[in-house]
């Protein structure tokens, strides 16, 4: 297990802790979700009442500063959070987004963002995309080569 | 690969071929989906426009005859199909459901059912449940013991 963890990039280690947090909150986590072509979020979470959260994991100042598209995430979720580790200079982060303190094993919400409720049509489209992405990945894991391998 | 296949129950072998078929139709397949507490379907499929299909895999006459709840599946999908292999006595199956001929490697639709469009609220609830089920299974595969193992 530890060697698997060592293979993760710093941002992926944060995403692992964030996914654990989401699960404890009864949110189903989905890493590397693409809500819209050209936009990939680190972790999306789908809550029991259909709430959609987006969490961007930033492992360093450089990682944050180079991400010019973060404002674009807000319109794809009900709540948006940054996830950083305890070394991160948190004063860099805009104060109106949520903040999660994370490591590879765990995470906690230290600041809640305002909720910005998605329009119904967009929520439906995002939920469908989330569902198809997750089930598609499961199917690929269960049967990597339909029509190619196995026969 | 063949030894993995040998470990599957007959119905699961059909479900594997059905999942391949769904993928070729751009439907994301999800085995063992529970649309409603107490009801488990063999394979659910979520299409590109949000269509929800249910496929029940029947490996034998006994398997079919013992399933008294099939009428209950219809209200949880836009289209319902039976999937059977070439040995199955197809005359047992009600003529208004869809029919898929399957084996462990492939499947084809031999009879299309009428579409019975789901009400919007139910479709939304099912899509959300499908999404949370699929992402939950992925999360469990990626990290089997949050809070328990790994630290």
The DSSP helix count of chain A reads: 4
**Termini distance of chain A?**
33 Å
User: What structural category characterises the helix and strand content of chain A?
Assistant: alpha/beta
Shape of chain A: globular
- The rounded Rg of chain A comes to 16 Å
How many β strands of chain A by DSSP?
Answer: 6
Mean pLDDT of chain A: 91
Q: What is the largest interface, and how many residues per chain?
A: A-B, 37 and 37 residues
CATH level 1 class label of chain A: Alpha Beta
Approximately what portion of the residues of chain A adopt beta-strand conformation?
A: 25-35%
- Low-confidence stretches of chain A at least 5 residues in length (pLDDT < 50)? none
Query: Structurally, how many domains make up the residues of chain A?
Result: 1
Strand order of the largest sheet of chain A: 1-2-3-4-5-6
- CATH fold annotation of chain A: Trna Endonuclease, Chain: A, domain 1
Residue share in helices of chain A?
Answer: 25-40%
- Second rung of CATH, namely the architecture of chain A: 3-Layer(aba) Sandwich
What summary fits the major beta sheet of chain A?
Answer: 6 strands, mixed
């Amino acid at each position: 297990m530890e060697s698997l963890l060592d293979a993760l990039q710093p941002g992926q280690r944060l995403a692992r802790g964030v996914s654990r947090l989401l699960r404890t909150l009864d949110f189903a986590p989905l890493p590397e979700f693409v809500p819209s072509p050209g936009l990939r979020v680190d972790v999306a979470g789908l809550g029991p009442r259909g709430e959609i959260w987006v969490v961007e994991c930033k492992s360093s100042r450089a990682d944050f500063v180079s991400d010019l598209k973060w404002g674009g995430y807000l319109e794809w979720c009900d709540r948006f959070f940054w996830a950083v580790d305890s070394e991160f200079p948190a004063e860099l982060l805009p104060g109106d987004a949520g903040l999660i303190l994370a490591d590879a094993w765990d995470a906690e919400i230290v600041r809640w963002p305002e909720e910005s409720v998605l329009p119904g049509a967009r929520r439906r489209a995002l939920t469908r995309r989330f569902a198809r992405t997750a089930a598609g990945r499961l199917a690929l894991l269960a049967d990597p080569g339909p029509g190619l391998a196995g026969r």
